[in-house]
Amino acid sequence: MTREGTTALFARRQDAMNRHDVAGLTALFAADCIVESPTAGGVVRGLLTVEAIQRAWVTGFPDVIFTTEDLLIDGEHVAWIVHAEGTDTGGFMGLPPTGRAFELPMVMLATLADGRIVHERRIYDFTGMLVQIGILKARAVGSVGASLARFGAPAAEWARRSTAEATGTTREDVVQLLQRRHEAWARHDVALIAAQHADTCLMDSHVAGRVTGRAAIRQVYEAWFAAFPDSSLASDAVLIDQEHIVELAMQSGTDTGGFLGLPPTGRPFRLPIVWLFTVRHGQFAYVRPIWDFTGMLVLIGVLKAKPA
To answer: How confident is the model at residue 268 (pLDDT cuts 50, 70, 90)?
Structure first.
């Protein structure tokens, strides 16, 4: 499928989703498609499940809107990054409506074949969304609630497009950069991880908000490894579209060091994460993780959550 064809397919998808055209959206998927979705509770197969997932969204959130932040295309692999927002006035997942709104970034990682989506994995802060709309009640331990940052629009560094020649970075450069990052992560070598970021690099962090510069970004990583001394990061897939990179990985760790200044809980987590990068001249110019961060806080016991 050509790049133009892929772009047109996802434009039709956004249009169908925002018109709440469930049939039109379902038609973009292959008959035997596989979808990994928090809404479905895991891995599901077939058009009936795709239809059921989308119907749950448009029924629960009659005003739901999906706005494209970016579309990355790497052959048959696509990353659709969107900003979703809506209000629970219809009742989500069969529960009574709460009347509360949500907004959050989402990443849809799709594989295409014969002009249709054959596999898709959806990554976003599902637990955080449930808290926002009031299905889950969450109580922060200590002062952690005041420390957490909410994401707004992505930084301009992510949105700006340049050619490979202008960025001074080839595909092989990106592959090697990510490989060195994983090697440094396995050793918890914060100095080397930080050195891979440009002096003016921007990071959108759940904990620190938007931070600028290598020194500030190093502090974010130092705090992370101090809280999770056994932190591991295993890469699952990488999508490269010129200077923009999406990496799907499995992140895990145990809170034995104390997260966000709180006493250690000794509890582990293991969750998928998507890292968004912009790479220029062999260094990261922009970094943004998207994952179920609120779910991680619940798993390690920093947030106490229960059904409303």
So the answer is: very high
Considering the domain architecture, whether residues 91 and 181 belong to the same structural domain is answered as no
Global pTM value = 0.92
Q: Domains in the chain: how many in total?
A: 2
Give the span between the Cα atoms of 252 and 84, in whole angstroms: 26
- The closest of 239, 218, 233, 221 to 175, measured between CA atoms, is 239
Query: Which CATH number covers residue 197?
Result: 3.10.450.50
Scanning the structure block, which residue is given the tokens 């889950």? 136
Four-point Cα dihedral 105, 40, 53, 123, nearest 10: 20
For residues 211 and 74, state if they share a domain: no
* Helix/strand/coil for 91: coil
Domain, as residue range, for 99: 3-124
Residue 146: band (very low, low, confident or very high) from pLDDT cuts 50, 70, 90: very low
Residue 155 and residue 188 in one domain: yes
Q: Name the nearest CA neighbour of 243 among 275, 204, 282, 189.
A: 282
Distance between CA 18 and CA 41 in Å, rounded?
A: 23
Residue 157 shares a structural domain with residue 288: yes
Quote the Cα angle for 235-237-241, to 5°: 125
